[in-house]
């Protein structure tokens, strides 16, 4: 069945109407109820995933996973609809009949194999690791990404420059090739290979679709097509038909009953089953699926060219609309209409940010984040004598190599826990500056740097970023950026606004120049950033770090 062509209903934005946004994160899902007229957030709820991130062994069976694996359970996602959505509506004190639309966003690339009807294969064979959804930070497909990149470069594939010269091990094709070569039986059973962002819409509407955002950034869909069958066959003859599992054609055209859908579009209507899960009326408008980072631009009313939004949490995604098309080394991708219709949408990112700080505190900083922050902020810039590389989860931009690892230089017998903690925070700011400078050197100006995400709660960290970047930081006006962004898209899909720009202007919010750089600290950070760049160049070739990882993997095996 194709995506419905029926135009959305029209509503008076001044009426007492509401929308629901649901953000499916790495460890939990959250729902927020938002007033359509002004974006006021009236109630929210969070459901912590029962299985969280599956990294060591499979649930129940205890089957061990290999290095760099990260899986999730689809049941956790359904539970968010059953638990968080009704709780948010109750907290908001609105009647379900006042809700005119629901929108969702997901981490990406989080991808899963299913039957043609959408049943996850892990529901049928839970003892098989490859039957489970691979979370965005599943990096075990790096060798497969390396082969894809090498072949694409050798053949001069036209799509490769749109991804900064390399695709990531996190994306659909690398993970799909890993599935084929490590679990061919599961690959053969997988009639669909689908982003969780689209799978959840399938469950809500009964309609299979693919959103232009994940298709473009994670599915290597450029200028109306995927990589050719000839290219895929050269990787592995059995991979030639992989695109058939994606089941999509050009934007607005159906292939096997599936269409690539525009952001803010109407994906379908809430089914009776999904209405029972959520407590919403059957038939409510459901917005086209989207990615957590990309919906946040709307929540911050940052949908104009040059407004870069950094969604800072466990990782950081940098997303920015632009009216210019350029090849930016190491970017995660540039996609037409990938953030807002009519503009090019750029994405870059850092694979680990908050995860780095959590790793350090969990393993070495028994005093906790607040205590370490209080000690670290008393230091002068450079007082600890350290510089670090923020590659503890690999490097997403600008090197696109998840086999790289973290480095800390300058430790002595006098080094204290707060010294390392501050150096790790600074390293992530240096990584962000590297990304911004790479964009601007490529002719894509960054006019405003807007911060969203959980790390906004740390003013010390925010000030370091302002000083390192040497530019003011604007901040989103919501603690639930992705969920608010999804709600804004739901308002568009329900017909309350003519487009994302108008809805973002009415419902989004941000504070401009909330943090401004200190000139003296910025000068001091310039010196440290120069050393970061030297380390970046020295270790970026991977010779040492790849060897160490290989030795580790052999020992673990």
* Biggest sheet features: 7 strands, mixed
Strand content: 15-25%
Overall number of strands: 20
Q: Give the termini distance in whole angstroms.
A: 46 Å
Query: Ranges with pLDDT <50 over ≥5 residues?
Result: 1-11, 249-255
GO molecular function, one term: ATP binding
Organism: Nonomuraea turkmeniaca
Keywords: Arabinose catabolism, ATP-binding, Carbohydrate metabolism, Kinase, Nucleotide-binding, Transferase
Protein name: Ribulokinase
Descriptive report:
With 557 residues, the chain is α/β, with parallel strands linked by helices. Helices cover 36% and strands 18% of the residues. The protein is built from 18 helices and 20 strands. The strands form five sheets. Strands 14-15-13-12-18-19-20 form a seven-stranded mixed β-sheet, with helices on both faces. Strand 12 and strand 13 form a beta hairpin. The N terminus is likely disordered.
List the helices and strands and how they pair.
Elements: E1 18-24, E2 28-35, E3 41-48, H1 74-92, E4 99-106, E5 111-114, H2 121-124, H3 142-155, H4 172-182, H5 184-189, E6 192-195, H6 196-205, E7 210-211, H7 212-217, H8 229-235, E8 254-255, E9 258-261, E10 266-269, H9 272-278, E11 285-287, H10 292-299, E12 307-312, E13 316-322, E14 333-336, E15 344-350, H11 354-363, H12 369-376, E16 387-389, E17 407-409, H13 417-441, E18 448-452, H14 459-469, E19 473-476, H15 481-493, H16 500-507, E20 510-515, H17 519-539, H18 543-556
Parallel strand pairs: 1-4, 4-11, 7-9, 12-18, 18-19
Antiparallel strand pairs: 1-2, 2-3, 5-6, 8-9, 10-11, 12-13, 13-15, 14-15, 16-17, 19-20
Helix pairs in contact: 1-9, 3-4, 10-15, 12-13, 13-14, 14-17, 15-16
GO biological process, one term: L-arabinose catabolic process to D-xylulose 5-phosphate
Protein name: Ribulokinase
GO cellular component, one term: cytoplasm
């Amino acid at each position: 069945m194709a995506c419905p062509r029926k135009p959305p209903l029209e509503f008076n934005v001044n009426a007492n109407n509401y929308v629901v946004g649901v953000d499916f994160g790495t460890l939990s899902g959250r729902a927020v109820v938002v007033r359509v007229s002004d974006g006021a957030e009236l109630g929210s709820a969070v459901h912590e995933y029962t299985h969280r991130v599956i990294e060591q062994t499979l649930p129940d069976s205890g089957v061990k996973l290999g290095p760099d694996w990260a899986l999730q359970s689809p049941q956790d996602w359904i539970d968010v609809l059953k638990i968080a959505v009704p709780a948010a509506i109750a907290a908001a004190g609105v009647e379900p009949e006042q809700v005119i639309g629901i929108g969702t966003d997901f981490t990406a690339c989080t991808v899963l194999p299913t039957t043609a009807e959408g049943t996850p294969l892990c529901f049928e064979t839970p003892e098989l690791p490859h039957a489970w959804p691979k979370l965005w930070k599943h990096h075990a497909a790096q060798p497969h990404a390396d082969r894809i990149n090498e072949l694409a470069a050798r053949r001069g594939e036209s799509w490769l420059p749109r991804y900064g010269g390399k695709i990531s091990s996190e994306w659909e094709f690398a993970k799909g090739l890993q599935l084929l070569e490590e679990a061919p039986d599961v690959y053969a059973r997988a009639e669909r290979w689908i982003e969780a962002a689209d799978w959840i819409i399938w469950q809500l509407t009964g309609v299979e679709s693919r959103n232009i955002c994940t298709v473009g950034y994670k599915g290597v869909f450029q200028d109306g097509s995927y990589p050719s069958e000839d290219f895929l066959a050269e990787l592995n003859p059995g991979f030639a038909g992989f695109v058939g599992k994606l089941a999509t054609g050009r934007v607005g055209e159906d292939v096997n009953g599936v269409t690539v859908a525009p952001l803010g579009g109407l994906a379908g209507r809430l089914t009776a089953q999904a209405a029972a899960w959520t407590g919403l009326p059957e038939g409510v408008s459901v917005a086209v699926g989207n990615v957590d980072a990309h919906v946040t631009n709307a929540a911050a009313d940052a949908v104009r060219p040059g407004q870069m939004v950094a969604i800072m949490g466990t990782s950081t995604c940098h997303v920015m609309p632009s009216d210019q098309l350029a090849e930016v080394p190491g970017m995660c991708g540039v996609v037409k209409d990938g953030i807002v219709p009519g503009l090019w949408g750029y994405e870059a990112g850092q694979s680990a940010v908050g995860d780095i700080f959590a790793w350090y505190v969990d393993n070495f900083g028994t005093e906790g984040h607040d205590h370490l922050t209080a000690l670290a902020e008393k230091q002068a810039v450079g007082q600890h004598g350290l510089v670090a590389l923020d590659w503890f989860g690999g490097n997403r931009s600008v090197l696109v190599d998840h086999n790289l690892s973290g480095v800390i230089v300058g430790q002595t017998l006098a080094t204290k826990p707060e010294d390392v903690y501050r150096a790790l925070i600074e390293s992530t700011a240096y990584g962000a500056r590297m990304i911004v400078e790479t964009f601007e050197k490529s002719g894509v100006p960054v006019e405003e740097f807007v911060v969203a995400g959980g790390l906004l709660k740390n003013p010390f960290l925010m000030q370091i970023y302002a000083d390192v970047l040497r530019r003011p930081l604007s901040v989103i006006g919501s603690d639930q950026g992705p969920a608010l962004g999804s709600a804004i898209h739901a308002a568009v899909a329900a017909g309350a606004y003519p487009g994302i720009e108008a809805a973002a202007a009415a419902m989004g919010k941000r504070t401009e120049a909330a943090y401004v750089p200190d000139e003296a600290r910025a000068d001091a950070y310039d010196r440290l950033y120069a050393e970061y760049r030297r380390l970046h160049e020295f270790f970026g070739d991977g010779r040492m770090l790849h060897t160490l990882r290989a030795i580790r993997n052999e020992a673990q095996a």
